[in-house]
Known about the structure:
Chain A is mainly alpha-helical and 342 residues long. Chain A has 14 helices and 3 strands. The longest helix of chain A is centred in the middle third of the chain and has 37 residues, at 130-166. The A-C interface holds A 3-5, 230-232, 234-241, 250, 253-254 and C 61, 63, 87, 90-91, 94-95, 97, 99, 102-107, 116-117, 120-121, 150, 152-153, 163, 166, 170.
Amino acid sequence: MFSELTKDRLKRFKRIRRSYYSLWILGIAFSLSLFSEFIANDKPLFLRYDGKTFFPVIFFYSGQTFGGQYRTEADYLSLNRDRAFLEKGFMILPLIPHSPLHSYLDLAENPPHPPSGSHWLGTDSTARDVLARLIYGFRICMTFALCLMIMGAVMGIVIGGIQGYIGGTTDIIAQRFIEIWSSLPFLYVVILVGSIYGSNFMLLLVVMGIFQWIGLSYYMRGEFYKLKNMTYVRAARAMGIGHASIFFRQILPNALTPVITIMPFSLIGGITSLTALDFLGFGLPPPTPSWGELLSQGLNNLYAPWIAVSTVAALFITLLLATFIGEGVREAFDPKSEYRIE
Amino acid sequence: MNREPVLTVEDLTVSFESNGEDIEITDRVSFNICPGEVFGLVGESGCGKTVTALALLRLLPMPGGRILSGRVLLKGSDILPLPLAEIRKVRGRDITMIFQEPSASMNPLLTVERQLMECFDYHEFSGDREGRVRDLLNRVGFNDPERILHSFPHELSGGMLQRVMIAMALIMSPSLIIADEPTTALDVTVQAQIMELLLMMKRETDTSILLITHNMGLIAQYADRLAVMYAGRIVEEGSADIFFENPLHPYSRGLLDAIPRLDSKREEIVPIPGQVPQPSDYVAGCRFQERCSHAFSRCADRPEPVSLDRDQRVACFLYQKGPL
Amino acid sequence: MTILETRRLKSYFPVKGGVFHNVQDYIRAVDDVSLEVKGGEIVSIVGESGCGKTTLGLSILGLAPVTSGEIYLSGNKINADNFDSWGPFRKDFQIIFQDPFTSLNPRHTVYRILSEPMLIHKICGRKDIKDAVAALMEQVGLSPDYMGRFPHAFSGGQRQRIAIARSIGVRPRLIVCDEVVSSLDVSVQAQIIRLLMDIREEMGLTILFIAHDLSLVRVISDRVYVMYLGKIVETCRTKDLFENPQHPYTEALLNSIPTLDRGKRPRILKGEASSLMELRAGCIFMNRCPYVQARCAQKHPDLLPGRNGLVSCYFPLSSY
């Protein structure tokens, strides 16, 4: 399935322990975060009441189902303290029994509250659990960055590849256009568009995506220029194989090297950009849990250091792991050979 | 061969590291080169001839390349154990080298003059340096040395560059020039010119030449003595006259039969069946036996070189004297 | 029956220079070449590097620009301005390239490399393709067990076998072999040459063999074209070329080759071939020809019938 060359590269990557473990850790962390609802939530995973089984984490049940008065969703946390309920049933809450959106305004002091037994990393300035917000925030920023990375890669490959493959006037015109496009201050564009249409995940993704591909397209343009002169491409032309097939089946598999090496750093860029936008308030709308927003809160509430410290720590670790992966990939693809001649 | 050999290689064994293990590339290679002769080291790609040449000057790529054992005697004294500072004196002065691709051997950013004069930075030379350089350029066939001196490598053709390399090799009057495939990258008409030039220089300066090539024709035309290498070992060695009258080793014969010949009426070429083994697959016994039509039970052992009457040695059990 | 013909073929590459990238000169890689190959023949084009023989082979198949002249494949005239006009002939006219290390896509398995052409040209269907690939590999001397491997795993000689298999799989009429053994070891060269000759017998192929090694050309060809600086200087049957060369360049070429006869030293031809760019008045070989005379400076001699075949020289050599 994989060529010898790919197997060699995989082996080399595995040998760089730092990177290999980082990949595992980040991969597992992200996979787990996809199930954030099952890890940090104020709705129980499993509830047994009056002989019947319920899964509140997935389904909606009104308060009346459990003997409450109202038809709005049951307040499971207070139910858990209600003796009437506890006589007839029990519930299993997720590991972190807090939702990122719920403000615990009924706690003793004023928010933000320092870390305690019930809130391991404390709460933020509107009394929402910090740890829960960190976990959901992780999912959002990783998902955003991954989508951005993929979008940028696909567009970069296609546009850069077409430039390189066709060359000539097409390339010159496209290159001028790209140069103009890349000089647009993308931050302003994001802010402007966000202000007009209201920011949300998809809008931010699209607006950032249409700038993201530029960097990769330079690499792909170069690779395609180089590879289209390879003898096996000539052999394919001589065999009567058409342009589309040559582009995708002959050249592209050989041109992917820069893509793979750029991807981890592209991910880091995506995480950082989103966090920066959220920090400035131009990113995801409140009350979406996001690291940037937490950072901003942290800065405004320096007397409550747990907010800032935990967010910075989370950001630092994530970016560090991604950087290790990136370094490992780069090293695996292009090992520095230490040739000495005496 | 009345005089002492200029170079004696004894049991030279070189290995390369691959995936953590040492793989032997050459196995106890031994030969002598006499003063003023052209010695041909002939073999196909992968047989270890270039590695042997690099090992002589300790130019093996590191990490990875190692000389496991053997001696290299330059005019009687072993140069392998010399400290780095000493071996650097040997390089460029006593033993010089010409490589296959002349355009890759020269720095594209420096003029020819800079590169030729560079030799004097590393070796003692009392005398007129500029004069020596110009004299050599004349002798290698340039009518206008000044123009050549001020040119950059890309402005000269392959043949011209190789002449410059030959001039460079001769500056310090070396005892031995190692020429590693010096004409492979050149046209056949230019090849003839360059080989004639090398011969002429050899006659004028009494320098020996180690000519490394895969081209049997070159060996036939220009070598005084030769050694045939196969899979890291010397399989036949001796006088070229005697060799071409009567090649002994089955590989030598197979090689000569596989080459199309212009001179004879014979128009057939007979391929040697099978393939050259990879170094990682080298066996302890005769490495040619799989492809040899004369292989027999003895071939499972390593054939040692046997001397025949005249200047001819062959490593093959077919020629073992005495009981087998 | 003529399978391939060219008439006054020219392939010029413009050389741009100056601030505005104006065309300043041309590299005349193929300069007025007319040749003909009949069915079942092996015809060689021989010359040193830079003489234009590779460009000639490529432009016949539309892979190098054709500036002027005519190309006839199986008797049909090709519209050289349009790459697609070669389309119907792609199956019948194949090419094998010199470098076995770059002519196979490193990311494709041998199976894919060999099956794709056969599927495209509908030689066989999806059901039988695997058997067809196995048979093809055996025909060129490779074990079908290796069809799942990548080119990286094979030696130079084996890769050329794969390249040969790729081109014969579609059952072509003519194969252009562009220096196909030049990068291989001597003993491997002999194997590949033998393979080509065997396949020619089995399949009734025609081969246009481009090479610089005259001794190889002698083994394999029926007829030879000698090329120098973009032009054909001599053509005749192989036997005649080697016994009675007519053009001084052919003679010089034959004399330069180091033979295994230690008694006969190669003779030196002075000078070097000038570049393909210079416009020369007079014969292109003038500056190196040992027999040059005043007449040679006027105009390059036309390719005219000589003692054997055609020769482009005012004073062709004759046998003594």
